[in-house]
Design goal:
Layout lengths: L6 H16 L19 E2 L42 H4 L1 H23 L4 H29 L16 H11 L2 E2 L4 H20 L2 H5 L4 H16 L2 E21 L2 E18 L10 E4 L5 E12 L5 E7 L1
Antiparallel strand pairs: 1-7, 2-3, 3-4, 4-5, 4-6, 6-7
Helix pairs in contact: 1-4
Length: about 325
């Protein structure tokens, strides 16, 4: 005669399955380098200020660093669902299951050692079958809850956007690419020469008409430093060797353009108060030897307005 199935084992099995089903599957959240010898990159490029454009990153900018977007209802530092098996993500339940099944197995081994009948073995197999079915449905329920609208009584669980949607958002945040004319390229060349000339003369009034207020503040700071040290940076005979438009875009009413500039000039620093032909007046550089420079200049304008210098990056 088969031994009847103990009621306490069924109750324990149901308790174990309920614990698995209710356990959470996700953890709780928690003027170029020649101008004053500058080697840093400065200014703003609008929405593309901190993008990699194969130039030195902007180290001085009034544009705030972009914030990483988060989805409503999705807390940061949330581990991805599905990383490893369920019991790998819940080591406590692994130990609980091991101890439970171990005690069950050894308990029934004792029964066999006592000479239990074949009916007892069939009862044991039936118990394992019931437990396996309950665990299977519990895990199916758990997986279904994890990919549904959320846990009962909790906030809705928002799944991450698809790669395509994310890429579309990035494209919107970068502005819209536009085409420029040859007249714009000529304006960039003229603006480049005018900025170098005004910088060399220390003409802050003219610089104000050629660049954004942010860039003007950086140039003014350099001019003030030079004046306090009684030195002057001379940049003369500027020759643009190569100018290449690398990107142009618009955001709202503003249009931006970034150009690669390779140019040469006589670039040196003199000490004020000395005769021009005094060799001791030259602090650095050589007034007789031209030097080459490679920089990325970014320009900005209101749609239909004049272009202004917005950023300089060293290459």
């Amino acid at each position: 005669m088969a031994r009847p199935l103990p009621n306490w084992r069924i109750i324990l099995a149901l308790f174990f399955c309920a614990s698995v089903a209710l356990a959470p599957a996700i953890a709780e959240a928690r003027a170029g380098a020649s101008a004053g010898g500058r080697s840093s990159s400065m200014g703003s490029r609008g929405l593309r200020t901190y993008e990699n454009n194969n130039a030195q990153p902007l180290t001085r900018s009034m544009t705030p660093l972009p914030q990483t977007p988060t989805q409503p209802g999705l807390t940061p530092a949330m581990p991805a669902y599905g990383g490893g098996s369920f019991f790998q993500r819940h080591p406590f339940l692994t130990g609980l299951a091991g101890g439970f099944l171990g005690s069950w197995l050894f308990g029934h081994s004792g029964y066999a050692a006592d000479g239990a009948s074949a009916g007892s073995a069939m009862g044991t197999l039936l118990e394992f079958l019931i437990i396996g079915v309950l665990i299977y449905f519990a895990l199916r329920l758990l997986r279904g809850r994890a990919f549904s609208n959320g846990w009962p009584g909790g906030t809705p669980f928002s799944m991450p956007r698809s790669v395509g949607a994310s890429a579309a958002q990035v494209r919107r945040d970068r502005g819209r690419d536009i085409n420029l004319s040859d007249a714009d390229l000529s304006a960039f060349q003229s603006l480049h020469a005018a900025v170098q000339e005004a910088w060399s003369a220390g003409d802050l009034g003219r610089l104000r008409r050629l660049m954004t207020p942010e860039m003007l503040s950086y140039f003014s700071e350099e001019l003030t430093r030079n004046a306090s040290q009684r030195i002057q940076n001379i940049v003369s005979d500027v020759q643009l060797v190569k100018g290449e438009l690398t990107e142009s875009w618009e955001q709202g009413d503003l249009q931006y353009a970034t150009t690669f500039m390779r140019w040469s000039a006589h670039d040196y620093v003199i000490r004020l108060g000395h005769p021009p032909d005094d060799a001791e007046s030259v602090v650095s550089g050589n007034p007789r030897v031209a030097v080459d420079a490679e920089e990325m200049w970014t320009f900005v304008r209101q749609r239909g307005g004049d272009w202004l210098l917005s950023a300089i990056q060293q290459v």
